[in-house]
Amino acid sequence: MNQCLIKMTGIPNQATVKEPEEVRRAWVGAVMRAEMPAPGVFQVDAVEGIDALAANSFEAARWWRNTHIVERGGVFAFSWLCCEIVDAPKPVMA
């Protein structure tokens, strides 16, 4: 899977986790590495995602750390509707 750098440009939808509104809003502006395993979906390592969130809002990141087990190997999935690619891998010319 190709990795890219994404920036959250919108408030992500709630999936199975019911984040408080202020925590969801804190994602906007976060920049993180992501993979695109399926069209329209970005996957972000959970630990890296929370670190990126902490750069925007220490309180929002603390909410995640206090209410969920966040560990490497876990992932967040974000829709392309709330993200933009800010850096993508360059094709390798043979």
General description of the model:
There is one protein chain. The chain has one domain (3-87). The chain contains three helices and five strands; from the N terminus they run E-H-E-E-H-H-E-E. It has helices at 21-26, 46-56, 58-67, and strands at 3-8, 31-38, 41-45, 75-79, 83-87. A five-stranded antiparallel sheet has the order 4-3-2-1-5, with helices on one face. A hairpin with a 2-residue loop joins strand 2 (31-38) and strand 3. The longest helix is centred in the middle third of the chain and has 11 residues, at 46-56. It is globular. The protein starts with a strand and ends in a 7-residue tail after the last strand. The model has no long low-confidence stretch (mean pLDDT 87).
Summarize this, please?
With 94 residues, the protein is α+β, with helices and mostly antiparallel strands. It is built from 3 helices and 5 strands, in the order E-H-E-E-H-H-E-E.
Q: Structural class, from helix and strand content?
A: alpha+beta
Strands of the biggest beta sheet: in what spatial order? 4-3-2-1-5
Span of the ends, CA to CA:
19 Å
Encode the helix/strand succession as letters. Answer: EHEEHHEE
How many separate structural domains? 1
Give the overall shape: globular
* Residue-averaged pLDDT: 87
**Overall helicity:** 25-40%
Poorly predicted runs of 5 or more residues: none
